[in-house]
Write a structure and sequence with these properties.
With 142 residues, this protein is mainly β. It is 0% helix and 43% strand. The protein has one domain: Immunoglobulin-like. The chain is built from no helices and 10 strands. Mean pLDDT is 76; it is low at 1-13 and 18-48.
Length: 142
Amino acid sequence: MGFGITGGVIALKNNKNPASTLPKIAALPTISGTNSGLTQPTQNPSNTSTGTENHQITIESPGNESIVTDSKVTIKGSTSPLSSLIVSTQSKSYLSSADNAGNFNVDIDIDSGVNQIQIDAIDLEDNQSTTNLIITYSTAKI
């Protein structure tokens, strides 16, 4: 299993199987101009996780299709214990991991307007789950 990103890959050791490595995406650099070369997260408006029955991602907050008034957002949820997490926006990717109970909090920055956020979790058995959120950042008074 791997993730392809132009610009580099970081390999982290798998705690359960030290001989294997899990490929991880490094934080993407800020790119001026067009978004050519960036992979956009796919939309999943139902906020359901794709993955095996025993390896899912549940997002507690923010809710899908939320409108927020701050560019800094904390993605809070749960998945399989000690899973590696990759949270991707249109402009940056963030690496994190779930704790022993499977809980996680990932602080991200989002752009003004509609943001598609993709959350990928890879458990200790190398099973992958993916879920997507749409979060709108607006400073307009509603």
